[in-house]
Write a structure and sequence with these properties.
The protein is α/β, with parallel strands linked by helices. It is built from 15 helices and 17 strands.
Length: 440
């Protein structure tokens, strides 16, 4: 029990750092790295930015490298239930004991300095210090937000990835596609290859210009490599890949055709590493993908009632989710539970999702950033979806109970709109952890 209370205290301290806000800039991170002995220089890394697909692409790369025999660190955000999910070595989350220990160590290291790290700066420093102490060979690191000024951009990686570009975090990154692309392209380092599935012409132009000025080769999905969907059901896809080598009937336990660019990027990364003298064998690619365990992306958490969780929290992700749901459940009734942060494009998220839902339950996860159910209802009404039954619920727990009373065999309960919402739903459904102010 002592460790448990100490862990809660450590996590509470980390969340208290939110009062310093989201501060884009590298000064704190560089100073933290220096104080901690530059742990980020002790391992090779792959750095991943993008509006959507960062987390799943990162997990795929890490899984394939692990199956190839490398010791691999994975740093992703946000978490669903517990902070420990963010930092993993060979698929195993950091222990609560190590979070306690490293929080105390880093706090002590900066106690007599004027450094006031944000939550994400502190967490990133913890991840890199932990990876160094665990003697990992490779770190797969997901950008928190943007790229150019993100705390993770202290890395000099072997490969940069920009999954795609869309409008999100516009208050920090800019209100246009070229502005956002400029921030994300900021992870590109001199001579380091860039792998991307960015299809938006204005975004791709920015990425190519940055790559050219950095003497970095661009590997573009659909031109230099691609994936072709062979089959899909509610829990997996099978696909063929064409790149430096061709692979047939690869199995991925994530569903939706929007995963094709992500998984193809992951394979291309392994192909480039092989070129660079870090061979990834065919067997490791098949096994790494088939054994992938990644939560919160069309994740089934209950069969009866049938409940899916998906963390879609911007219009691009919501559109991809809606398309997948229509493909997977053409005859099924979708009961939608949605909770969205008030700083997001609420109508842009709701529009595709309400088009596939007969019943919509609008709710509010814990946290000040969450939009009220009444605000969501107003936004749905603006979309003129008069045929949808609109219900409101003050908590995610109540929304789930309401959805269960409405559910019939053949129906699907879909919880989405934010990782806050899906994380809270997961805990309500029996997955223990620390409910928190997650950072998207």
């Amino acid at each position: 029990m002592k460790n448990s209370s100490q862990f809660t205290e450590s996590v509470d301290y980390l969340y208290s750092l939110q009062r310093y806000g989201i501060k884009l800039g590298l000064e704190n991170s560089l100073r933290l790295m220096d104080i901690l002995g530059n742990p980020h220089e002790s391992f090779h890394s792959i750095h991943i930015a993008g509006t959507n697909g960062k987390g799943s692409t990162s997990a795929m790369i890490a899984s394939m490298l692990k199956e190839n025999g490398f010791r691999v660190g994975l740093y992703t955000s946000p978490h669903l239930v517990s902070f420990t999910e963010r930092i993993r070595v060979n698929g195993v989350p950091i222990s609560e004991y190590d979070v306690i220990r490293l929080t105390a160590y880093i706090r002590n290291a900066i106690a007599h300095t004027d450094i006031k790290p944000t939550f994400f700066e502190f967490a990133t420093a913890m991840a890199f210090f932990y990876f160094a102490s665990e003697k990992i060979e490779w770190a797969v690191v997901e950008v928190g937000m943007g790229g150019r000024l993100d705390a993770t951009n202290v890395l000099t990686p072997k490969i940069c990835v920009i999954t795609n570009i869309g409008l999100d975090h516009t208050e920090f990154l800019g209100k246009s596609i070229p502005e956002i692309a400029f921030e994300k392209a900021g992870i590109i380092k001199p001579g380091v290859p860039v792998v991307t599935a960015t299809a938006e012409p204005l975004a791709l132009k920015v990425i190519k210009e940055r790559a050219e000025s950095s003497n970095s080769q661009v590997h573009l999905y659909g031109k230099d490599f691609k994936g072709i969907l062979a089959s899909m059901d509610s829990i997996h896809i099978e696909f063929d890949y064409m790149g430096y080598k061709d692979y047939s009937r690869l199995y991925l336990p994530l569903t939706g055709r929007h995963q094709l660019p992500n998984v193809s990027i992951a394979i291309r990364v392994c192909e480039i590493l092989t070129e660079k003298g870090f061979p990834t064998y065919e067997d490791a690619i098949y096994k790494g993908l088939s054994r992938l365990n990644f939560e919160g992306r069309l994740e089934c958490v209950s069969q009866s009632p049938y409940i899916l969780l998906d963390g879609a929290h911007n219009p691009q992700a919501a559109e991809a989710l809606a398309i997948t749901m229509e493909e997977l459940f053409p005859q099924g009734k979708v009961i939608l539970i949605v909770g969205i942060m008030k700083d997001k494009d609420i109508e842009g998220i709701l529009k595709p999702l309400t088009n596939i839902s007969q019943t919509v339950i609008l709710t509010k996860p814990i946290g000040e950033r969450a939009a009220s159910p009444e605000k969501l209802k107003e936004c749905v009404k603006n979309l003129h979806r008069s045929e949808a039954v609109l219900l409101t619920s003050s908590t995610v727990s109540e929304a789930l109970e309401l959805a269960k009373t409405l559910w019939k065999e053949g129906d699907v309960i879909l919880v989405t709109g934010s990782f806050y919402t899906t994380g809270e739903a997961k805990e309500v459904l029996g997955h223990s952890g620390v409910l928190s102010q997650l950072r998207e």
